[in-house]
Amino acid sequence: MTTTVKEKYVNISLCISAEEYLRVYQGSAKKVSTIDSEGKRISFPANILQSYVSHDGIVGSFTIIIDENNRFKKIIKVG
Predict the structure, then answer these.
(1) Which of 15, 49, 56, 61 has the most beta carbons within 10 angstroms of its beta carbon?
(2) Which of 68, 78, 69, 14 is nearest to 46 (CA)?
(3) DSSP-assigned letter for residue 47
(4) pTM for the full model?
């Protein structure tokens, strides 16, 4: 028997300064809250963005992939 996993794709655009993202390392920020491409507010753990931090912070468009239980699977930079 095979199980079909239904993934959800959430598209977002972010512009977070390096200073603002520094709050994650300092422990005062743990989540990012933003509006997705469909106009819905979403919140997710800030640490999933860690590999995309540059000297300018985090800038770009991303797709977050979540499973059918709304658990994070992967984030991909798309622009």
Answers:
(1) 49
(2) 14
(3) G
(4) 0.84
